[in-house]
Structures are given as structure tokens and as C-alpha cells.
Amino acid sequence: KETQPLPSLNHTPHQPVSQFRRALPQYLAALAKNLLLLDLGMVIAFPTIVIPPLLHAKDGLRFTITQASWFGSITYFCQPLGSLTAAATLDMLGRKRSMVFLNIPFLCCWVALYYVNTVTQLFVLSGIMGLGIGSIEASILTYVGEISEPRLRGTLTSMAEIAEYMGFVIMFFLGTVTDWRTSALISSLIPVVSIVALLQIPETPIWLISRNRQEDALKALCWLRGWVSPEEVQSEYDEIIQYSLASKVLKCVSRSESTEKHIYSNDVNLSDENLNKEYENNKPDDVPSANSKRIDFQVNPSNGGSELDLEERTESIYMREKLSMKERIRDFCRREMMLPMFLVCSFFFFTYGSGMLAIRPYMVPVFMNLGFIMDPYLATTVFTAIGLLGCVLCTVTVRWLGKRPLAIISVFGCAVSCLCLGTYALYIDELEGHKHAWMPMLMMVALAFFTGIGMDPLPWMYLSEVFPFRGRSLA
């Protein structure tokens, strides 16, 4: 495609936009995509309200202990498979369109769960929803990372975890007041509302720029920064242009007298196809010689990347090419990707090993075995609401306390809570559990709170912040 000229932005005086007006559209966009996370939370919580009644059913649709274990786990087994397909979908369709389309399988599965008649059907539908969860996470976190300002990014990302916790609370509440089939049918309303909300928000400017849609990117940025005029976002727009161009991978091929060198360059070169049309039509099959000349446009960093300088290159030739799989892997394994990848994966490892996530599908049987004096179904709602409270507290305090102190507090609190809870469960018979029923409840409250205040939301904050644009979807 022929490179479009960058929109011209005139330097005209304008009134400063208030912080509230500048932040409001970013919060609205985050709320729209959070409806998808609300649905995600309801999907994860759904096995919790299905397993107990089917495990103890006398006739009809029912679970054996093995089937109940599989039903509680199959969503998590399929989740990584969905993540593998997310990168290609995000880059091809865009962040917004991917989120819209992902609502469709969830809508179909919720309706189908109302009419399900066999255990096999439950397994299949649960697996499909697990695939959707893997795809959702990448699109949502990529979107919020690309539309938000740095000062709001931590808060907007932690709002995602709040939405997921709200999904838990809603599903557990539905399981308390109605049966699981009706809960599934009610849940089908969420994808419909999510589609309507997502259609009202713009695509991310940086993705639009990567698709050579500068005018659409400028309009999207104006919307996201408070419905302002183009002049008021000129500086940020120029920075996004420069960052997007600098993120592109161009294969630089040069030839000396007897050798050829293939290297990777992040130099920003926008080839004018009109000027090089004759060269492209007559390009030989092999690599051009060092004497070949080509006119390139190159972004001049000194003026913010908003103007293009004409430069004649004689020593090498820059070609836009589709990289092979080996080259893509080599580019992905660069240091700028591997360091944040190690950080995020390590954090997620400890998050999923912190206790609360592992027992969530089996919370009702666990509470029964621990001798809770509270109704187990009501207890699931209460403890999840406590986790939601911790997540809200994380959202409010992360800008002032920082991520590291919250992470240390959360990890330490989860460790102590799990140790005490496990010790109590091990010696419950000797302790005469009915006389000490308050002990496991107190430990579970602490575990839910400390999980919500850091272990759950913080990895997702890092995930949306630490990766560079090139490779972010795959990461």
C-alpha cells in the first residue's frame, strides 16, 4: 500500500483541557472492555456453582468425583491454547474488533449451557469458554496499555481485576438465589451488553498507525484525550508516530565484494513507492549490488518525527519483507522482550500458586470439610467480596505505594494464611473443629484479602506496561 502522508497539525493556541475531561474517556473505554472481563469472571466462577449440585445428584445429569475434578480444571487446561491464537488475531483484526468478536462464543455457550443434557456437553462448552478466556486476556490488556496515559495505566489495569472479581460475586450470588441453568441463561445478557459498549469506543491509535491509517489514529487519540481538537494532541501524536515507526522490523541487506550480510535494523525508513516504482519493477531476483541507488524517506528524530527528510542511500538497501518464522523468533528473543517476560511469568507462577485460585472451583466442598458455620454458598460470595475489597484498595493505593510494596505485603500475607489454613485442615480432627469454626473463616478472610490486594491484580498491571509494541501481542 502506498504510504499516506501524515496529517498536518497546525500550532495554534488552545485552552488547556482539565484532568477530569482528559481522564474520563479513558475510564469509559476501560469500563467498556471491562464488561468482557466481567463475563470472564463469571465463566471462571461457574464451575463453583455447578459442581456441588451435580456431585450430589441422585438421578439425571450428575458428576462422579473424577468428572467433577475434570470439569473444574478443563477451563484452565484450554486457556493456554486460546492464548496461542490471540497474537495473530490481535494483529490482524485489531484490539477492538477482536474483543467484539470474542463475545460471540461466550453468548452461544451461555445459552447452550441452559439446555445441556450430558456431561460431555458440559465438558465441550467449558473447553470452548476456556479457549475464549485465553484470547480475551491478551486483547483486553493490550488495549488498555495502548490507550491509556502512563499516570492512569496502573489504575485502569487494576480496574480489570475489579471487573473480574465482580463477575465472581455476581455468579456466586446467582448460585445462591437460583439454580445453575438459570444462572447461565442470565449470564448470556453480559456479552450482548459488552458488544454494544465496545462498539462505542475507538481502536487504539498505535494499531491504526501500524496499519497506515493515520487519520483514524488521530481521531481516536482526540476521542481518548477528552474529545479535543487535533492541535491539542499534536505532541503525543508525534511521539506515537515515532514510536510506531521505530518499532517496525526492517531487513537490511547489504553486499560487499564477496560476502552478503543479513542484519536487523530498527532504523525508520518509509519507502516512497512512487519514487521507487521503477526499481521495484526491475529489481533482480538476487540481492542488489552495493552500487544500487534508492531514494528513501527517513524520520528525522530532531523534529519529533513529524517531518520527512529525503535521503539518498548507496551503501545498502532496505526492504520491507515478511520475516520467516526463524527470524520472528530471533526478534522476539531479544533482551527487551526476555527481561519483562521473565518478570511477568515469575509473578504469574507465584500468583497461581498462592492458594485461592487453585481452590476456587471447589470452594463449596472445601468450606463444608472445614466445618464452616456459614452456609457454604453464601460464604463463597462473602469471601469473594472481601477479595474485591482488597482489589479496590490496590487500585486506590498503587499510584502512591507502588507495585513492589504491595506485592511484598500480598505475598507474605498469602503465605501466612495458607500455612495456617493448611495446618488447621491437617489437624482438624484433633482440634474438634466445631469448637474452633471461627479459625478457618478468619484464615480464609485473610487469604482472600491478601490475594485481592496484590497477587491477583499486579501481574496484569505489569503485563500491560512492560512489553514494547513490537511483540506485545505475542507476549
UniProtKB/TrEMBL annotation:
GO terms for cellular component: membrane. PROSITE patterns: MFS, SUGAR_TRANSPORT_2. The chain crosses the membrane at residues 35-55, 99-116, 122-144, 156-177, 338-357, 377-398, 405-427, 439-463. It is found in: Membrane. SUPFAM superfamilies: MFS general substrate transporter. It is a multi-pass membrane protein. Keywords: Membrane, Transmembrane, Transmembrane helix. The keyword Heme does not apply. Residues 25-475 form the Major facilitator superfamily (MFS) profile domain. InterPro entries: MFS, MFS_dom, MFS_trans_sf, MFS_Trehalose_Transporter, Sugar_transporter_CS. It holds the Pfam family MFS_1. GO terms for molecular function: transmembrane transporter activity. It comes from the Eukaryota. This is Major facilitator superfamily (MFS) profile domain-containing protein. It comes from Graphocephala atropunctata. The lineage of its organism: Eukaryota, Metazoa, Ecdysozoa, Arthropoda, Hexapoda.
